[in-house]
Amino acid sequence: MPTTVTAPAVPIADGIELSAIGYGAMSLAGVYGAIEEADAQRLLDGLLERGVTHLDTANVYGQGASEQVLGRFLARTGQRDRFAIASKVGIVQGGGIGKRGVRGDREHIREQIDGSLSRLGVDALDLYYLHRPDPSVPVEESVAALAELVEEGKVRSIGLSEVTGEELRRAHAVHPIAAVQSEWSLVSRDVERYVIPAAIELGVAFVAYSPVSRGLLTDRFDAEISALGGSRRNFPRFDASNLPGNLAVAERLRAVAGRIGAPLATVAVAWLEHRAAEAGLRLVAIPGTRSLAHLDESIAAASLRLDAEQLAELEAVAAEISGPRTFDPLWVSGGREGLIG
Length: 341
Prior knowledge:
alpha/beta; TIM Barrel; eight-stranded parallel sheet; two-stranded antiparallel ribbon; 39% helix
């Protein structure tokens, strides 16, 4: 029997709930290695079987490939109503990760929504994110354009990805923001300074991507997997200067997890869930994987309780991670808040 999601669903807006563990569908676009269509469809069937009903994708994942795979799944199963589907707009194709641009203008937003709806084969998205704020367009203007899509019935709620605490407050004053999405994990904690307090203050749900740090916080990650990891090579933590030390940190975290009696991925997600509950934050974690067995480890976190000593030990080891979480500090909230150099 597969591990099933037992944590309560997270409400983000009227009539919209996200399963506490969602699925980050960037992996369906081959970002961390190729995946055959049949394997992708079996994976998505497994999500449904496990009660994972939140699917998170974006127009730029594989230049629309991720949305297309999800669209074929929804058409094949006829289960659209079982899922809360999120996509994103704002990042524009360039020369690959680290070389992309950003557009948050009304024209671009209105142009891109129809492409996402068509690829997914749906009439409306449950959640539509501004993927990154555009430095040349006030966030208020981008949110006003997204609000038009809500009024037209193409979008049911609005989200923001990698915004600062201040940007979140400014956006929320224009239209209610249902969710803010950023990287958050044992080794990526900059959002705790400004973004998470703003989300709590405004009643905005937090969607954590890379909760196991692109596979680093698992029992199977090593230098060979990193070399095969596609886009990982664009992130400083996986480059030649930082990876050896970070692999050692991960090995020490595995030892802590072993004493706890659970896989490191389970422990890492349980740590997130504990910190969110402690802060009064509504949390959804969206691990991205091509393996149902790996997903099961994240789902199992709901039944794991960590005590104060275990939390302190995990955090002390994780604090020794080397390298920023991003290739460009301005690309993420913490960089623009002066927390990532």
